[in-house]
């Protein structure tokens, strides 16, 4: 049975996480996103969608692992089969 859960990450990563499109991202941004994904996803999980609207947070570093505090985040839907 498939299950879903929600995780929060950078809004900037949406195209990369959902579509695999890293255009416009630097190597450092891709590495940060990949490290976040490795930490957040369990075996057999994949990100399938995200919220339509981003929200600003001063806790950006807690949601992404970035070395700065403020930024836009989205809630991502994770599917586990």
Overview of the molecule:
The protein is an alpha+beta fold. The chain has one domain (3-80). 31% of the residues lie in helices and 33% in strands. The protein has helices at residues 14-19, 27-40, 60-64; strands at residues 3-10, 45-50, 55-57, 71-80. Strands 1, 2, 3 and 4 form a 4-stranded antiparallel sheet that branches. The radius of gyration is 12 Å and the shape is globular. The mean pLDDT is 96.
Cα end-to-end separation: 6 Å
Number of domains: 1
Alpha-beta classification: alpha+beta
How many individual helices? 3
Estimated helix fraction = 25-40%
Oligomeric form = single chain
- Average pLDDT across residues? 96
Which parts are unreliable, with pLDDT below 50 for 5 consecutive residues or more? none
Assess the beta-strand content as a share of residues.
25-35%
SSE pattern, N- to C-terminal: EHHEEHE
Q: Note the overall shape.
A: globular
């Amino acid at each position: 049975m498939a299950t879903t859960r929600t995780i929060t990450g950078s809004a900037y990563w949406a195209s990369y996480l959902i579509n695999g499109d890293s255009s416009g991202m630097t190597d450092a941004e891709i590495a940060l996103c990949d490290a976040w994904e490795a930490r957040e996803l369990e075996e057999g999980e994949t990100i399938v969608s995200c919220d339509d609207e981003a929200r600003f947070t001063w806790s950006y570093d807690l949601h992404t692992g970035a070395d700065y505090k403020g930024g836009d985040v989205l809630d991502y839907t994770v599917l586990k089969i």
